[in-house]
Amino acid sequence: MEMHWIYILLAIVAIIQIAIFVMARRIRKREKENNVLLKYNINSRQRAWQLLADQSIPDEDKVKIKEYYEAS
Question: Which UniProt keywords apply (predicted)?
Fold first, then answer.
């Protein structure tokens, strides 16, 4: 009878772990969509300068990249 409760407890813990994993991935995806540093993999001023010259990047993203470039 006691092993039955251990199995239930393990199942609940596994479900909670999976739920936390899924929620973390959603949060990370949303953050990557909104943060231009993560979205375009900007890790230096040189990379920011290259992206500012790229015509395929939307203007609102260029404004955020320029703010980062000038702040560094």
Answer: Membrane, Transmembrane, Transmembrane helix
